[in-house]
Fold:
Amino acid sequence: MYQVHGDRRSGNCYKVVLMLHLLGVDYRWHDVDILAGETRTAAFLAKNPNGKIPVLELEDGTCLWESNAILNFLAEGSRFLPSEPRLRTQVLQWQFFEQYSHEPYVAVARFIQLYQGLPESRRAEHQACLERGYRALAVMEQQLQRTPFLVGEGYSIADIALYAYTHVADEGGFVLDDFPALRAWLARVAAQPGHVPIG
Structure:
């Protein structure tokens, strides 16, 4: 049985949980308190030397980390990862976009507001995250005005990767009123068979 080490409120951990549920795969969950420094313990660093969650531990003890890499591993051979090279590359394109243009702003704004209570010392950083995060959401809106999912007609791990933090963007101070296609996409993702909420 797979074992998942993470924080149930984390969008990156939620990606893995959602994927496992969509696939109908059993797993054992292990809570990791990042604010208490549990990702810096020797035991955790033996699983992921980078000291970050999530970690997917396989039955043979092998540990996989980086949420989007885990998604690719779990989705291999399923309908959630296209085999056609162009579509598969577009999935990767959106996953890279999520990690470099979306998550650093949408997720960080949420961390500052939800986990840290928006301290005065980070308000300027939070505002910068909002501005850059809105730019990323606008890129998604443009695509979703053309296609129901990020890679054409099919729900894929590209959608899972970006749904994770987008659907809780309000917890970071984002307002999605000006993104109708994105909001419709959020509803489509939530309506998928096997979908589970974060937390």
The mean pLDDT is 97.
